Queue: 2 jobs
Job 1
Amino acid sequence: MSTQYQIQQKYFESFACDLSEKRALVTGCASGIGKSISEYLVMCGAEVICCDLNPISLNIPDERKSLVSTQKVDLTNTQELIAFAQDLRDIDILINNAGLQFVSPIEDFPIDMWDTIMAVMLRAPFILIKHTIRGMYEKQWGRIINIASVHGLVASPFKSAYVSAKHGLIGLTKTVALEAAQRCGNLTVNAICPSYVRTPLVENQIASQAKLHNLPENEVISKVLLEANAIKKLIEPEQVAVVVGFLCQESSWPITGSTINLDAGWLAH
């Protein structure tokens, strides 16, 4: 058992909640935020369906591995996603997390990359919400949590598709929250908006931003990525995961249609 795994488990145990008898679907589970969320939900006793195109390997105890199932689904393939989603009426917790990034000036931004980002980060959440919310209405309980971004609230240059998709995801969050509240007082819909999290996605951005800004990679984190942060630290994936757990608790029902900012003071300016 690695030291990093032991540290994460200790952190998760400090924020443990009881989600036994709940069934969750998490997209983008192969690494980063989605992986950490999945591991945390399993630790809390939830049954978790992990959805990703890449191989999924969670760091969880052997006695809890029966709680996890994996699905390889192409979120950009509408028909494949709908076929998968139609069998999801018994989901209690939906975490729309999958995402990707592409950095480019608008005049050079490839249209096919724009379409891919929109499909993964906006159309796929719409389709999954559309199909899972019916079962939540029947149960009169549900939690829909969209992993948005501080870039759903403010913009940065060279990220037109990502920023547009995240802004749209927050709009979708608010709309569905209002609809759900009319039919169920214990079905909440929220967006978590972190600034930069220590994930492979961010690590890939460091190289891209270094090229755009003509900076050494070791200066990109402080001078570009975290320039607007009051606290100059990358967020850890498990810090996002425990906020998901908080929103899933029974006592969190008043929080709906909200954006939960984990931005290290970015938006305080």
Job 2
Amino acid sequence: MNQLQCLENSPFSAISQALTLAEAEGYVRTFTEEGVEMTRLLNRVRTAQRTGTISLPITPEYIKLLLDASADAETTSSTILSEREQEILRLISSGLSNQEIADALVIAISTVKWHVRQIFNKLNVNSRTQVIARARALSLL
């Protein structure tokens, strides 16, 4: 069985095809804009390559470039929290509900919800637990 046939049956077949085409054209942002899930997948690909679990026609340097760019994109996106978003993030980490945050800041609950959505989007998370973990990992808390 040749390398291509092995890849067709692999869980890495789709990403392998995408990376092969992207590397030839030098694409980077296509992957970095996909967020944390893509970073996890790229890490799995890199690990599979290093351990010899799978042989991909992608250079390790290209995967490193993508992972470095993903880390830069993540850091950049996390540093653009407004002062109000940083304040709300701190209150979220204190365990306050949206209503309690609204009361503490004397703003409407709809405004708190809007800021929370903005924080989630900027940090690429889906829950309060994730936002706290991500904020700590990025030294925002």
